[in-house]
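In the design runs reported in the main text, the only information available to the sequence generator was the tokenized backbone. The following block is the verbatim input for one such run; it is reproduced so that readers can re-run the procedure and compare outputs position by position.
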């Protein structure tokens, strides 16, 4: 097991340049973070699918079923607003291991037979809260484990894996539930979580560029205040959260729009997202990603405007596939946000970004679903996409003006610009 000491020096500047995904995976610490992340996503997907199935069987309520599968995203914003500063504590490896222990306890508790639904929902929110802190800690470590020049490549690989494991997890979950009970699938999820915990604990070491002040609610609020007071960061976060969230809201209406073809539309969206992340993260340089960022953000929503005229299903499927490649616009925006962030608070800022993005996915689904209550699903999809385009266009000048000048945050001195 790696030494649990905070005196270790960061390896970011010492790690030799990597070449592609294979080069990244030769970095032992990145491989450990990546494997732990992969297992965490797989476990979360299995657990979510099992819980949704269980709730549907017991309540026959579409609303409760949807909340059971996606309600944890609303708990992530609580982590961003309260204790996200723990992501930048002096011992990030120990913090990540402890947070994964909480996730393991939550997954194991879901496997208890006969647990009341109220308790299951409570566990869902608690685990979602701590998972948001774990995401911030993991991404803070990622920015220190790999060189800045390949940070987008590393995030691209993780994005691809997240999407792929979500698809695989739902497919495997559906197959397992034909032969196993929900409790047994929960047990499988707990085992995957435990393996991910062991992988991280045995591969990742402590870092050194950390806060000297004790993290907590005051420190979290101070850093968040500094983050949102900077126009560059506000513009980047707005473009990372709102356009994506509204497009996820479009996807949430596929079942209502075309029940018999919803599977094909969702599969097309997942395939387009994976292809976009692969192409943008692997084939483009940092300058190329920056130049394409605005076009990618437009690509994310514009094809959904076709839903206004109810084209043939092959056309809507193609539109969804093309549009989903635009999700790769997060990569250049995340790079720019990293460049604007002082080293000692990188974990918190990236945790806030991730938590806000997940929360806006839930908000986008709620907005689109609410519109569909009064409009047709196709009209609601078109309206959500139009607002996404409007946000992207109206905020473009603020993104362009953002400069890589670090923000002063409470408890951390701004480091020289990269």
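Verbatim output:
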């Amino acid at each position: 097991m790696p030494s649990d000491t905070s005196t270790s020096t960061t390896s970011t500047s010492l790690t030799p340049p990597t070449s592609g995904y294979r080069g990244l995976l030769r970095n032992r610490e990145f491989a450990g973070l990546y494997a732990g992340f992969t297992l965490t996503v797989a476990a979360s997907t299995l657990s979510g699918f099992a819980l949704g199935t269980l709730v549907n069987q017991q309540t026959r309520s579409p609303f409760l079923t949807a909340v059971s599968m996606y309600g944890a995203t609303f708990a992530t914003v609580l982590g961003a607003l309260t204790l996200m500063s723990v992501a930048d504590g002096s011992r990030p490896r120990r913090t990540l291991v402890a947070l994964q222990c909480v996730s393991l306890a939550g997954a194991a508790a879901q496997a208890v037979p006969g647990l009341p639904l109220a308790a299951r929902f409570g566990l869902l929110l608690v685990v979602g809260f701590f998972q948001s802190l774990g995401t911030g800690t993991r991404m803070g470590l990622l920015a220190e484990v790999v060189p800045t020049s390949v940070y987008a490549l590393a995030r691209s690989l993780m994005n691809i894996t997240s999407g792929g494991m979500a698809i695989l997890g739902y497919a495997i979950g559906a197959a397992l539930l034909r032969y196993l009970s929900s409790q047994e699938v929960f047990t499988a999820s707990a085992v995957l979580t435990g393996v991910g915990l062991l992988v991280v604990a045995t591969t990742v070491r402590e870092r050194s560029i950390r806060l000297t002040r004790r993290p907590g609610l005051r420190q979290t609020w101070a850093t968040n205040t500094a983050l949102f007071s900077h126009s560059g960061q506000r513009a980047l976060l707005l473009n990372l959260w709102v356009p994506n969230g509204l497009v996820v809201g479009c996807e949430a209406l596929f079942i209502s729009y075309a029940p018999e073809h919803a599977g094909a539309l969702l599969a097309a969206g997942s395939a387009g997202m994976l292809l976009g992340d692969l192409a943008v993260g692997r084939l483009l340089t940092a300058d190329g990603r920056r130049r394409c960022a605005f076009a990618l953000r437009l690509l994310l929503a514009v094809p959904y405007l076709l839903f206004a005229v109810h084209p043939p299903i092959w056309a809507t499927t193609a539109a969804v596939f093309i549009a989903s490649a635009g999700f790769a616009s997060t990569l250049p925006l995340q790079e720019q946000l990293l460049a604007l962030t002082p080293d000692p608070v990188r974990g918190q800022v990236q945790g806030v970004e991730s938590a806000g993005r997940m929360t806006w996915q839930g908000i986008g689904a709620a907005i689109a679903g609410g519109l569909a209550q009064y409009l047709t699903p196709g009209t609601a999809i078109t309206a959500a996409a139009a607002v996404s385009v409007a946000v992207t266009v109206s905020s473009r000048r603020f993104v362009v003006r953002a400069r890589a000048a670090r923000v002063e945050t409470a408890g951390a001195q701004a480091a020289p610009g990269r």
